Amino acid sequence: MRKAPAVAMAAVVALSGCGKKTVVAPPPAQIAGQWEFVTKSFLTNNTYAIIEANLSQAEDAISANAKNVLVLDGTADADDPLFAIIDGLGGPCDQQVLGDVALDGTLSAGPTFAFTLTDTGPLGTAVVNGTALLNSGGTAVVNGSYLTPPGCGFNQDSGGITLGALIQPFSGMFSGMLNGGHDQITATLAQDENLNLTITGTDNGGAFTLMGAVIGGAFQASGTVNGQDVSWIGVFDPDPTQGDFLIYDSAAHFLGQLNPGMTPAAAVKRPPGIRVER
């Protein structure tokens, strides 16, 4: 979404037709950038959604079009409920495919982010309305809530926003074992200012390059690895104790995780979930 970068707006003094001065205050924060939000349903036990978005900002108006929003489904890990296992793609209208989801919102004093998430898919259209209170710097969610009216064959849902954070651009070296340990991966990630991503690395010693795009705290990248066409969805866990990428195929089947550093065999840790609770 940096194609429409944030507007760093100072207070503007304009003269009206009657000679009066009108002061337009700057927005309470600048929040444009890569965001990862986690929501938890109050009505369906242990159910989460991970919303990845590249937010643009023009004064107090916030937006992300369908190319810049990615929704993933998650279920609380049975062994550690602070984490959720990603087990599906898309919103309620998408039938487990990456759907057409767009986000629009307004930033007000607090700073408070009021948003509408519109999901259009094979089953119809659903609209999610929510509000998130951000920290004073506008870089993380303090708390929040959402409401989804009935739609696409599902009952009304409501819940809270458990986590949300501005994600730094992807870079650096990562490694891990994918496909049940059959693929020893080393990878270097490089993101440009237009949110394009290049991944260069090795799989069991054979070089590969994947190209793709960054969406919030996730990426989609494709190419050829050891003669096989691959399409990866990578989801970043921004928790300070994690900092890894969970890697899935295009149908959200878990392939493995890539951890910071270049020692693939050592990159084995907790069950493969993303942090969803403080």
Description:
With 278 residues, this protein is mainly beta. Helices cover 0% and strands 58% of the residues. It is built from no helices and 21 strands. Strand 3 and strand 4 (47-58) form a beta hairpin. Mean pLDDT is 88; it is low at 1-17.
Give descriptors for this structure.
globular; 8-stranded antiparallel β-barrel; Porin; Lipocalin; 2 domains; 21 strands; mainly beta; 8-stranded antiparallel barrel; single chain; 278 residues
Assign an overall shape. Answer: globular
Please give the count of helices: 0
The main β sheet shows up as: 8 strands, antiparallel, barrel
| Proportion of residues in extended strands | over 45%
- N- and C-termini, Cα separation: 28 Å
Summarize the model shown.
The protein has 278 residues and is mainly beta.
What's the arrangement of secondary structure elements?
Elements: E1 12-15, E2 21-24, E3 33-41, E4 47-58, E5 61-64, E6 69-76, E7 83-89, E8 100-108, E9 112-121, E10 124-134, E11 141-148, E12 157-167, E13 171-178, E14 183-191, E15 196-203, E16 206-215, E17 218-225, E18 228-236, E19 245-248, E20 254-260, E21 274-275
Antiparallel strand pairs: 1-2, 3-4, 3-12, 4-5, 4-6, 5-8, 6-7, 7-21, 8-9, 9-10, 10-11, 11-12, 13-14, 13-20, 14-15, 15-16, 16-17, 17-18, 18-19, 19-20
